[in-house]
């Protein structure tokens, strides 16, 4: 029996390609925001103030609670922190 290969874990666990892409984007933003916190040695309270959210939201971010964040929310947090968010769209490779 051959096993199906997936390009990412999200492709394997999400029901549709659209859901998988959304999760990939959210995951990337969460990783970038967490790195921003770590690189600047911010406390959760300072990060919350910078991102315009509450400290418990920053805790959820750091703990990887991806289901608690929409793409919009993560983009807004990144922009509030002075980060630039770019999206690249292309066609699927054949």
UniProtKB/TrEMBL annotation:
<dbReference type="InterPro" id="IPR010982">
    <property type="entry name" value="Lambda_DNA-bd_dom_sf"/>
</dbReference>
<dbReference type="InterPro" id="IPR001387">
    <property type="entry name" value="Cro/C1-type_HTH"/>
</dbReference>
<dbReference type="Pfam" id="PF13744">
    <property type="entry name" value="HTH_37"/>
</dbReference>
<dbReference type="InterPro" id="IPR039554">
    <property type="entry name" value="HigA2-like_HTH"/>
</dbReference>
<protein>
    <submittedName>
        <fullName>XRE family transcriptional regulator</fullName>
    </submittedName>
</protein>
<feature type="domain" description="HTH cro/C1-type">
    <location>
        <begin position="38"/>
        <end position="88"/>
    </location>
</feature>
